[in-house]
Design goal:
Length: 188
């Protein structure tokens, strides 16, 4: 079983796409209703979802990821990168930014605005807190340098990744290179 949570319009063959109305990732009871028991999920993909949660809400979601994944299962996560050195990018993705306020008019009625701006250390630390083994895939470091490790898209397709057509269009809209902070977290 492979899940895309907070899927929006994303679907992939062999993956079950779920919206918040189908599964609130912060609520263990929702997971039990949808999955039916712990340790049944092979993979979870969540692209640009965790930034809509507070740190504590994200911690509840990560705990649920851990509980419902099989041993060796993984989560692929992509969020806006809080260490991107580009002011136009930050002005688009940061909580309360002009871009974020503009985007809010297009979101579903109950979809929250951005609440947390993640960086590689804070996000990796959250997953390690629940005993995940973390591998960074794309991220900016504290010096503003971009890093990218090779990874397989079939393990979780991220639309907003470095060099993708989707990110290239967003780069024009935002007026800065549009990338995501991406990591894989494996349940050990």
């Amino acid at each position: 079983m492979r899940l895309i949570v907070g899927a929006g319009t994303v679907s992939m063959p062999g993956w079950l796409s779920l919206q918040q109305a189908d599964l609130d990732i912060t609520r263990a009871g929702d997971w039990m209703k949808v999955i039916g028991g712990v340790g049944k999920v092979d993979a979870i993909l969540t692209e640009h979802t965790l930034e809509h949660l507070t740190y504590n809400e994200a911690a509840a979601a990560v705990w649920n990821f851990w509980r419902y994944l099989k041993p060796g299962g993984h989560v692929r996560v992509a969020v806006p990168d809080g260490l991107s050195p580009h002011p136009n990018y930050q002005g688009w993705v940061a909580p309360g930014s002009r871009g974020e306020r503009w985007l809010q008019q297009f979101r579903a009625v109950n979809e929250p605005a951005h609440k947390t701006l993640w960086n590689f250390e804070k996000l990796a630390s959250l997953f390690r807190r629940f005993a995940f083994r973390v591998r960074l895939l794309e991220w900016f470091d504290y010096e503003g340098l971009f890093h990218r490790e090779p990874y397989r898209l079939q393990d979780g397709y991220i639309r907003r990744r470095h060099g993708s057509a989707w990110s290239n269009v967003l780069s024009v809209v935002v007026g800065a290179p549009y990338t995501s902070l991406i990591l894989d977290a494996v349940k050990v």
